[in-house]
Automatic annotation (TrEMBL):
Gene3D superfamilies the UniProt entry points to: 1.10.287.4070, Nop domain
Domain Nop stretches: 280-398
Taxonomic lineage of the native organism: Eukaryota, Viridiplantae, Streptophyta, Embryophyta, Tracheophyta
Organism: Gossypium australe
Main location: nucleus
Ranges for region Disordered: 452-565
Subcellular location: Nucleus, Nucleolus
Key word Ligase present: no
Gene Ontology CC annotations of this record: box C/D methylation guide snoRNP complex; small-subunit processome
GO process annotations (BP): ribosome biogenesis
Basic residues compositional bias, start-end: 554-565
Annotated gene: nop58
Protein's name in the database: Putative nucleolar protein 5-2
The UniProt record lists the keyword Nucleus: yes
Amino acid sequence: MLVLFETPAGFALFKVLDEGKLNKVEDLSKEFLAPDSARKVVSLKAFSKFGNTAEALEAATKLLESAPSKGLRKFLRVHCDGETLGVADSKLGNAIKEKLKIDCVHNNAVMELLRGVRTQLTELISGLGAQDLAPMSLGLSHSLSRCKLKFSADKVDTMIVQAIGLLDDLDKELNTYAMRVREWYGWHFPELTKIIQDNIMYAKAVKLMGDRANAAKLDFSEVLPEEVETELKEAAVISMGTEISDLDLMNIKDLCDQVLNLSEYRAQLYDYLKSRMNTVAPNLTALVGELVGARLIAHGGSLINLAKQPGSTVQILGAEKALFRALKTKHSTPKYGLIYHASLVGQAAPKHKGKISRSLAAKAALAIRCDALGDDQDNSMGLENRAKLEARLRALEGKELGRSAGSAKGKPKIEVYDKDRKKGAGLITPAKTYNPTADSVLSQITNTAALDEQDTVPKKKKKVEAEPPQIEKAAELPAIEAKKEKKKKKKKADKEAGLPTNENEPESEEPTEKEKKKHQTEDVENAVVGEKKKKKRKHEEQEDKESEVQTKKEKTKKKKKKSED
């Protein structure tokens, strides 16, 4: 029986001298306590040395996949004719048996035997010292780790994390220094602060000008535009600032030099960051830009850690305080974090920023995974997803879109709803036209007079209306006079007939509906008042009875007490 043992230097085949000892697995470890006893159990039959590190790496990767390498197959064909082979991996034994037709064994006895061989490896293999075996195993392990992780020096994202941190620090320092220059030189030339808004241009102008009295003699064409230059020269003549010494000006110019040097270094650092981002994360850079992508990587810790996060986490990355505060106070959670500064979110309207940030975070999560774990080095995926997001943004804003970037077709044409129009037919009712007769005032007055005559019975009590205009009163006079004439004619006819007429007595007329309603309401009110009075009486009677009962009870109690006494 043979035993296959893998070492960093090559493959070794050991011959089992006494197979009877394999039956006693518990006592097998005692045989390998000393080199002499170990040589009585196994002996080296053959050794296949690796030619170089690449061959060792190939063999190790094949063994991890439970498959024999090309060199191992040749080695076993030569030395394992008609022998059974003990292996440490059962899957590897099955592969050898299928390809090489060699019987393989994998059990507890073989595993215990391999453990014993490992303890006495340097003694069993002549020429292989411990000082040689340690660096071999270390080099092979490093090579294997690089191969498994697909390590690339260009993919190191630590440089990006440090560069974006330094860029933010430079921005803070630049802002602080520039504000100090403005405050310091503002005592001498305060008007210059409003004339030049840019900090770098301000520092260049101060460095070139020095004292404001020199402004009229100098040429600022290389630093400032013509309009700003003329305004500066005019303000320098009538400036309200104080006079400063040459020593103060020298220190101010030194500070201006610091501002300009920092701005130049910041530009160089930004170019370096841009190139690193295009190398390490090209798809993420195409979606959100260099600065936002670098801040996302720095906030996540690394590109691999960021690739493990879902899109919802990428969306609010950087807004952790707001998220936990919202969860604690049971308010609405934030819709975006660092991703808010991306150009796509900035282009969207305020009401669409939440939707666009959610879509952008989902696409960014895919781009990060592609950059971290994919083999492609181009930014085609990022550009394609950016085009889709721009199409979605146009669709949300209601702009015309022939065909969306995805599989869906273009948006259907939206027609304005018209209640007077049927589907595929004309108008149900004719369109309303302008009525010029509605503008005349006299026609309205006559119509109202006719309505007043017809509506003799009022429907409900109304508030006192304002007096009608004089034109309406003039229109009502002839109708009133006609009624008076009719009454006079009736009186004359009654006199001629000999009927008694009393002018003082009013004419008996039937009660109107208004009066009837009044009587009805009065009757109802009287009935309600009567019922209330009855209820009050009953209540008073009940109270009187209860008071009488209580007095009786008190009297009986007093009598009982007296009798007991």
